[in-house]
């Protein structure tokens, strides 16, 4: 599959056109950003680990009947995916308190939530990706009420499937972010599922094995991505 014109370059990935208008290539970079891109850095080999991790997780979700944009892994850093009209909503699912939920609601980090908590954020850098509710989604015309219902259902199913998969690899899925898009009118799970957008803790030691190591300068960042990749891909 030939890589053609660059369509879009984001913080961690580049999208390229292919000779098929329905398919695009996601190229995973080593660049990392945090705190609205105020903090920037490189995590060596992150692109390779993230491409592999995401490919394995999308394959697994696909086998379980979840509709995703994933077609196949092409190379170390490239993945072939279906072209999406992205829905500008970041869908966060939480199983334990951490990050912005801890800050917003005054929960100390690491409390198990009785039920998964789902949140929507408006994907708009200029506004700092604010937390929004279903009414705001409707007000902004981001998705139809029917799509919102499907997104909720799909995100909770993905949570159950990923939790189970990761648990057997000694990883706790604390929280994660998903993005959805439309492909010929069909709602598909898009983007990536990697330690950049998931909080993953070691089941025994509760050690953080995700981008929080970069955000909070905890050290051993590359090692954490490598270890997650080893546990998920082997
Ligand atoms: N997340 C993400 N992209 C964002 C914001 C959050 O991938 O722009 C992920 C983040 O890695 C975490 C989850 O979504 O796994 C919840 O993040 P939170 O709202 O706690 O924000 P944070 O404090 O991480 O900025």
Give an overview of the whole structure.
The model has no long low-confidence stretch (mean pLDDT 97). The chain is globular, with a radius of gyration of 17 Å. The strands form four sheets. A five-stranded antiparallel β-sheet has the order 1-2-3-7-6, with helices on one face. It has six helices and 15 strands. Strand 4 (31-34) and strand 5 form a beta hairpin. With 234 residues, it is α+β, with helices and mostly antiparallel strands. It folds into two domains: 3-82, Phosphorylase Kinase, domain 1 (2-Layer Sandwich); 85-219, 2-Layer Sandwich (D-amino Acid Aminotransferase, Chain A, domain 1). The longest helix is centred in the middle third of the chain and has 23 residues, at 145-167. It binds uridine-5'-diphosphate (UDP).
What's the short story on this structure?
The protein contains six helices and 15 strands.
Indicate the topology.
Elements (H helix, E strand, L loop, with lengths): L5 E4 L3 E5 L5 E6 L2 E4 L4 E4 L3 H18 L6 E4 L4 E5 L2 E2 L2 E8 L2 H7 L6 E11 L8 E2 L1 H6 L5 H23 L3 E8 L1 E4 L2 E4 L8 E5 L9 H4 L5 H13 L1
Antiparallel strand pairs: 1-2, 2-3, 3-7, 4-5, 6-7, 8-13, 9-10, 9-12, 10-11, 12-15, 13-14
Helix pairs in contact: 1-6
Q: What composes the largest sheet?
A: 5 strands, antiparallel
Tell me, what is the CATH class of the largest domain? Alpha Beta
The percentage helix is: 25-40%
Shape estimate: globular
Secondary-structure class: alpha+beta
* CATH superfamily grouping of the largest domain: ATP-grasp fold, B domain
State the helix count. 6
Order of helices and strands: EEEEEHEEEEHEEHHEEEEHH
Report the mean per-residue pLDDT as an integer.
97
Strand order of the largest sheet: 1-2-3-7-6
Second rung of CATH, namely the architecture of the largest domain: 2-Layer Sandwich
Bound molecules: uridine-5'-diphosphate
């Amino acid at each position: 599959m030939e890589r053609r014109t660059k369509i879009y370059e984001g913080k961690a990935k580049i999208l390229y056109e292919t000779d098929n208008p329905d398919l695009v290539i996601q190229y995973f970079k080593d660049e990392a950003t945090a705190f609205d891109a105020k903090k920037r850095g490189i995590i060596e080999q992150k692109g390779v680990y993230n491409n592999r991790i995401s490919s394995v997780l999308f394959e697994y979700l696909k086998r379980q009947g979840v509709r995703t944009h994933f077609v196949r892994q092409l190379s170390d850093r490239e993945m072939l995916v279906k072209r999406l009209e992205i829905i500008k909503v970041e869908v966060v699912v939480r199983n334990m308190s951490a990050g912005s939920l801890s800050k917003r609601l005054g929960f100390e980090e690491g409390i198990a939530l009785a039920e998964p908590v789902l949140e929507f954020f408006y994907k708009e850098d200029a506004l700092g990706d604010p937390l929004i509710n279903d009414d705001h989604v409707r007000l902004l015309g981001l998705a139809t009420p029917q799509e919102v219902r499907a997104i909720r259902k799909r995100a909770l199913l993905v949570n159950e499937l990923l939790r189970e998969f990761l648990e057997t690899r000694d990883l706790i899925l604390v929280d994660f972010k998903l993005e959805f898009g439309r492909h010929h009118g069909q709602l598909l799970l898009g983007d990536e599922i990697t330690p950049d957008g998931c909080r993953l803790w070691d089941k025994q030691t509760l050690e953080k094995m995700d981008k929080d190591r970069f955000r909070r300068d905890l050290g051993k960042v590359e090692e954490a991505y490598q270890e997650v990749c080893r546990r998920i891909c082997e």
